[in-house]
Amino acid sequence: MKKPDKPLGLYIHIPFCKSKCVYCDFYSLPNAEREMNRYTSAVCRHLTETAPQAAAHLADTVYFGGGTPSYLGPRRLQKILKTVRKHYRIAPDAEVTLEANPDSIGDWRKLRALRKAGVNRISLGVQSADDKELQALGRPHTYAQAVDAVGAVRRAGIRNLSLDLIYGLPGQTLALWQRTLNRAAALEPEHLSCYGLKVEEGTPLWDRREGLDLPGDDAQADMYLWTVERLAALGYAQYEISNFAKPGFASRHNMKYWTLGEYAGFGPGAHSDLGDVRYAYVRDLDAYCRGIKSGGSILAESERIPPRERDLEYLMLGLRTTQGIAQREFENRFRLSFAPIEEELKKFLSSGHAVQSGGRWHLTPEGFLVSNQIIGRVLDALGQEKLRRLQAAASGDYRIVQS
Q1: Alpha-carbon distance 373 to 363, whole Å?
Q2: Element (H, E) at 190
Q3: How far apart (Å, rounded) are the C-alpha atoms in residues 242 and 164?
Q4: If pLDDT is split at 50, 70 and 90, which confidence band does 172 have?
Q5: DSSP state of 271
Q6: What is the spatial distance between Cα 306 and Cα 273, in angstroms, rounded to a whole number?
Q7: What is the pLDDT of residues 266-325, one digit of tens each?
Q8: CA–CA separation, 243 and 310 (whole Å)
């Protein structure tokens, strides 16, 4: 009897940008257009060489992330997609996402060409509906360009559109954030990602952190809770801390990360989790291209993680989603008792930070606001349970969890 195909996500990192945003800590390169052809050839060769490792898999998602993938241009993107389709088995209904900035996808004809090549989902980096905020972030577009880009996406025949937004910006009030979200929602995307601004070390924003007029924790919490309530009223269901979708439009690719699915990444800085091995490539375009050409190592890190040792990830990532975690699922998968974890979660029931429903536990919007603390407590409970199991095994009183 033939084994069922293993689902797989393909992630292709496109490290080129028109300019570097002041908050961005992803591996991306402005003013590197001269490297685009070289990189496209390298990533196509890498995809081809890696394909045999995925022979037992059926790729049901393909995700072009960045950087600004749309900045690479349709012809190069088409070449990469052609390589993917030639060397990998792709599901007929595969979700194929392209991240884009509004200033680089204004031509609906080029978008239509990408749709015909297989792209069926666009993730558009709008970030704000206020041009002053966009300028302060170093974004290379205006909100008018974002509106035009949405029109181009629709005219090209793409029916799955996500908009990225950021709240908690310097000087931003609740009213300004409400204006941005309402204007974005009026564009009727199928999906919205709303992220709180993080000032990351190593970014220009970090260097200016002392002088930033950032909203306080309470103000950011008000923005977040209003967002959840407002989007629910508009028909967008929250399915992860920062992500909201109309029915049937949750990001299938990103759900792989949160549910321990397998994915293979390509490009400098890309991460993979395939065949019980988690690995990442060097954050250096030149080293990546030279390694692919010469057959040298391009790995930055690699770690083998057997399925039974992913209990921590299951809890940590699962509690980021509204799907949450379940006793039966946990005990069947990891052969550990869920009881200590459940006891910890029960402490957050009365405060309204956690909910138990249908045999599953998940955090509420209020719980998501303090998710790091709650997840930390849950992971401590897991650690204590594993220690208890080790002590029981040492004393000869070892019992497999019954489910």
Answers
A1: 12
A2: none
A3: 10
A4: very high
A5: E
A6: 11
A7: 999 999 999 999 999 999 999 999 999 999 999 999 999 988 889 999 999 999 999 999
A8: 24
